Structure formats: structure tokens, C-alpha cells
Amino acid sequence: MNKLKEKSQQLSTITQMSAGIAHEIKNPLTAIKGFLQIGAANPELRDNYQEIILDEVNRIEAIVQDFMMLSKPKSSIQMEEVEADEVLSYVLRLLEPEAQDKNVFLRSEKMHLEETILTEPKRLNQILINLVKNAIDAVDDGGEVMVHSEVLRNELTLSVSDNGPGLTAQELAKIGEPFFTTKEKGTGLGVMVTKKIVADLNGTISYKSKKGEGTTVTVKLPRQP
Ligand code: ADP
Ligand code: MG
After folding, report:
1. How many C-beta atoms lie closer than 10 Å to residue 106's C-beta?
2. 42 CA to centre of ligand 2 in angstroms
3. What's the 126 CA to ligand 2 centre distance in angstroms?
4. Which of 67, 6, 87 has the alpha carbon at shortest distance from 196?
């Protein structure tokens, strides 16, 4: 592709993203405004709206957080040499309460994680948090999420499997498109953010899924990008 065409395509992606973000933020804002107006006119009803308003504010916060991650340049990465297990165990501890809350078994399998890797712990955390959260969201009560991680030769491999509903070929094609979500409170930005972080760390990400048979997401990152 020539440079000019590439530039104009980038611009059109930015325009589409901005329009999408504005739209996604405007909806909850309109709802918040409406509930505040009703509450102002009917003080006795205010308590009923507190929870909805907080939900909508949380939604805006989640969208803005994801969006900020998307606009962070690759040059802001701060590499550190860390033991792989340090980062991975932290994320699993962080997500355990959420898994327990939903009665989901969060299991992990680790190989050679005492090895060190060169990475930005914050971004690596974010990758794993996004993938595990999606897996937890996908499975039913009593479902299972398995996080397999291993350092082998020059690569860190993370794979997150779940026994949720899986994805159809059409859904698989859409995953990672901005605002593609099937959740009531989803932003549809998580996979996109994850893909960007993985690319910034010079890694690869792939989805394997079959309807009715669960999903496995595999991320491979070079140990020394
Ligand atoms: P969000 O989680 O806010 O919906 P994401 O970009 O993280 O946004 O995910 C987009 C969509 O991809 C989800 O709404 C869901 O439909 C689908 N998806 C992602 N991970 C899985 C998974 N492990 N199993 C089934 N569907 C998934
Ligand atoms: Mg998500």
C-alpha cells in the first residue's frame, strides 16, 4: 500500500473510532442526565436511580480507560526484567475474587515461570486481565477457566481456555472490532486493546473457538522484544 493511502486509511479509522467513542459515551450520559432530572423534580424517587447512575458512570469510566490504553504510543513502554511468575501470579490473585463471586473455577498451570522475561509488567497484566475477564464472563455458573503459562526458549506463552459457549465463525471474525460486544455492560474495546498491547510488545495473539466447545486464546511474547 502506498504511504498516502495508508495515511488516509489511518485517518478514517481514527475518525470512526472517535465517532464510536463519542456515541458510546453519549448514551450513558443521556441516561444519567435523564435520571438526575427526574430525581431533581421528584426527590422521593432519587434513591431508585442511584444504582443505575453509578452503573452508567462506571461504563463511561471503563470506555475512557480502554480508550486511553489504545492511544498510548509504543514509545511509552517501560521494559523491566522480571520473573514471569511475579506478574502472572499477581493477576491470578487479583481475579480470584471475581471468579469466586461467579462460582467459576480459575485454574492455572505454570511451566518454567521462574525464568526472567523483559517486559512491561503493567501491559502484560492488562493482557492477562482482559483475557481472563472475558473467559470468566463467558462461562456459566460452575464453569472453568484455565490459564496456562510457560517460558520456553525465547518465548513466553500464555493461553486462556474456558468451557463457555464458544464463538461462531462470524463472531470470531468480529472479535476485536471496536465496540463489538454481546454484553449488556460491555465496552467492546477489551480485545482491541489486548491486540494492540500484544502488537506493541512484538507478540502474537490467536483465538481458537468452536460454538458449544469453549474458547482458547493464545498469546506469544518474545522474552527479549
Ligand atoms: P467486552 O468484554 O466489553 O464485551 P471485548 O472486546 O473484551 O469487549 O470482547 C468482545 C466480545 O467478544 C464479547 O462481548 C464476547 O461476545 C466475545 N468474547 C470475548 N472473549 C470471549 C470468550 N472467551 N468466549 C466467548 N466470547 C468471547
Ligand atoms: Mg472484555
Report:
1. 19
2. 36
3. 11
4. 67
